[in-house]
Design a protein that fits this description.
Layout: H1 14-22, E1 30-34, H2 40-62, E2 96-97, E3 102-103, H3 105-114, E4 118-121, E5 153-158, H4 161-172, H5 184-192, H6 201-213, E6 234-238, H7 239-244, H8 246-256, H9 264-271, H10 277-282, H11 308-314, E7 317-318, E8 324-325, H12 326-337, H13 339-346, H14 354-365
Parallel strand pairs: 1-4, 1-5, 5-6
Antiparallel strand pairs: 2-3, 7-8
Helix pairs in contact: 4-11, 5-12, 6-13
């Protein structure tokens, strides 16, 4: 599929977007991907915490020191003050040294401390890097179009689009860079038309749906280090599933990232409670994005609930259009875009492939207005 250029926030330049796509991947790289307001920060927090705890307990096991298994994760020498310290916003100008074709020194230092590169990004799948870092150079690779990644792990988080729309409106209305100043009604229409930052959510979803249809590594770039045939570069999560059964979704993440050192009792009693909304809200300073300037004392972690988008769109009418709610326009938009038909075509469920059916259901459910 071909998509129009993505509108960007003032903090991201075309040169940085080119740099993002040209970055050479490492097998241990993790990209937390989403359209804005889909649960990115929540997933960042989950993944970083799991990586730190897994490494901690792996270290203890290697030294057969099980009596110290309740020491703080800080014994790794990491101070997790802010989620962006070790999972920075990929497409921000300040995070790149474009003159030398590398990530900025601060980003590289933090990733070296973590001994792993983790990013969060709102770029589409077709805009993300796919080529593998070679032994000769770690600078930006200038190359052609590659659809399959050579290595790395990509976690795509979705959320019901009505809730995304409502949350994104509050977000952009309260940040200085690229601030949105019109009404919610105008925003919703601009959002559906792909005129706001990061473009059409439909294009975003379809770009990743294409990736999931062909969820394989480019074996030509692996040469003698091919991953297992069952290994996949992409994992699909949904905000609603995380709200419904967080433990189950955390196990999906752990299996996908091969994190197998954490004792189950530690996960249940110590780690999972840290992922609850109220726990994050109590530590909001660790999650409030630092890449933009916030206005009016805006709190990035607002509600952590589902259903606000439907209520807001259902209450918004336009007398000039016969008092039709925005929900009617939303449904017409989905039909014009042919989104459901395109998803059905990508994930034809004529086979009994359970994972294909799950992918199709998640990508369909994300646009459901009910």
């Amino acid at each position: 599929m071909n998509f129009p250029p993505m509108p960007l926030l003032p903090i991201s330049s075309p040169a940085t977007i080119d740099a993002c796509k040209s970055l050479q991947l490492r097998p241990s790289d993790v990209f937390i991907c989403s359209y804005p307001k889909s649960g990115t920060t929540w997933t960042q927090h989950i993944i970083l915490t799991l990586i730190l705890y897994d490494r901690h307990y792996g270290f203890l096991k290697s030294y057969h020191n099980t009596d110290s298994n309740h020491e703080c994760v800080g014994s790794l020498g990491l101070d997790y003050n802010h989620v962006s310290d070790y999972a920075p916003f990929f497409e921000v100008d300040a995070h790149w040294d474009l003159q030398n074709g590398i990530l900025s020194e601060n980003i590289r230092k933090n990733h070296d401390r973590l001994n792993q590169r983790v990013f969060n990004t709102h770029l589409r799948w077709d805009m993300l890097p796919k080529s593998k870092e070679t032994a000769k150079t770690s600078k930006l690779l200038q190359g052609g179009q590659v659809k399959r990644p050579a290595c790395g792990k990509f976690i795509y988080v979705t959320r019901n689009l009505l809730d995304v729309c409502a949350s994104f409106y509050h977000h952009l209305s309260n940040q200085e860079e690229g601030r949105y100043t019109e009404s919610f009604q105008t925003f919703a229409r601009d959002w559906m038309d792909g005129k706001v930052a990061f473009g059409s959510p439909i294009h975003h979803l379809l770009s990743f749906a294409e990736g999931f249809k062909d969820n394989c590594y480019d074996e030509r770039d692996h040469r003698g280090t091919n991953p297992a045939k069952t290994d996949r570069p992409l994992l699909l999560l949904s905000y609603e599933d995380m709200k419904c059964n967080l433990r189950e979704q955390v196990f999906l993440i752990m299996n996908f990232l091969n994190l197998n050192q954490i004792p189950v009792e530690v996960l249940d009693n110590e780690i999972l409670p840290m992922f609850e909304f109220q726990s994050m809200k109590a530590n909001a300073h660790r999650f409030q994005p630092r890449s933009v300037t916030w206005l009016n004392g805006f709190q990035f972690l607002r509600k952590g609930e589902s259903g606000e988008g439907r209520a807001l769109m259902g209450d918004t009418t336009d007398g000039e259009k016969g008092n039709k709610s925005l929900l009617s326009e939303y449904d017409q938009w989905l039909n014009r875009e042919g989104y459901r038909d395109q998803i059905d075509k990508l994930f034809e469920c004529t086979s009994r492939n359970k994972e294909t059916k799950r992918l199709r259901n998640v990508f369909i459910r994300v646009v459901d207005p009910s």
